[in-house]
Amino acid sequence: MAERVFPGFTLRTSAAREGSRFTALLSSWPDGGGHPTYFAVYENRSFRSEDDALAGADKALALVLGVEEDGAPTFAEGETGFDDDPGASV
Asked: CA 20 to CA 9: how far, in whole Å?
């Protein structure tokens, strides 16, 4: 699990099993306590292994530019993080 600290929030990576596949997640933990909010990343893809999903979440975390007031991560416009997308900055 990787994490990055932003003003007001700490973002952490994780993965969740959905049937036989895994989803890459970023969780946003508010400073001062409270419950985290979870955000699926690369939603149109799933991963065959938990390690692959965690690697995807780590990659997404590295691409985060900042955090909105509600804790949602922000990315560059059009950023997908997919290596096979010619418009992605990897």
From this structure: 31
pLDDT digits (tens, 9 = 90+) for 65-82: 999 999 999 988 877 665
Residue-wise DSSP of the chain? --EEEETTEEEEEEEEEETTEEEEEEEEEETTS---EEEEESTT--BSSHHHHHHHHHHHHHH--EE-TTS-EE--TT----TT-TT---
Q: What is the pTM of this model?
A: 0.83
Write b or e for each residue in 18-43: b if 16 or more Cβ atoms lie within 10 A of its Cβ, otherwise e.
eeeebbbbbbbbeeeeeebeebebbe
Two structure tokens written together for 57? 């979440």
Report the relative pairing of strands 21-30 and 37-41 from DSSP bridges.
antiparallel
